[in-house]
């Protein structure tokens, strides 16, 4: 159990460092609460400020694991409550991996 606690502390520290970096480049960038494990970094497109970026598949996996949802329910919840939640100009972006980078089997059966 201590290794999970240690791993959790390391992950929390890395996420905190990433959030600090994001807030330095765009203090108005918003984050998706509860999806820290799906955070992949930030993206920029001139002239807009950088925004937080999350992996959509990982968000769905988090909903399945954390909230006990099946795949279809997690996808529906994610699409309606997360993707559909525009909260202003700092709203995060959600990456949909394609091709070889996408592991839906791992999400469905993981």
Can you tell me about this structure?
The chain is α+β, with helices and mostly antiparallel strands. Helices cover 50% and strands 16% of the residues. The chain contains four helices and three strands. It has a three-stranded mixed beta sheet with strand order 1-2-3. A hairpin with a 2-residue loop joins strand 1 and strand 2. Helix 2 (56-67) crosses helix 3. The two termini are 21 Å apart.
Features:
single chain, 110 residues, alpha+beta, three-stranded mixed beta sheet, globular
Q: What gyration radius follows from the Cα positions, in whole Å?
A: 15 Å
Structural class: alpha+beta
Distance from first to last alpha carbon: 21 Å
Low-confidence stretches: none
Q: Outline of this structure?
A:
It contains 4 helices and 3 strands; from the N terminus they run H-E-E-H-H-E-H. It is of the alpha+beta class and 110 residues long. A hairpin with a 2-residue loop joins strand 1 and strand 2.
Secondary structure elements and their pairing?
Elements: H1 2-25, E1 39-45, E2 48-55, H2 56-67, H3 71-83, E3 93-95, H4 104-109
Parallel strand pairs: 2-3
Antiparallel strand pairs: 1-2
Helix pairs in contact: 2-3
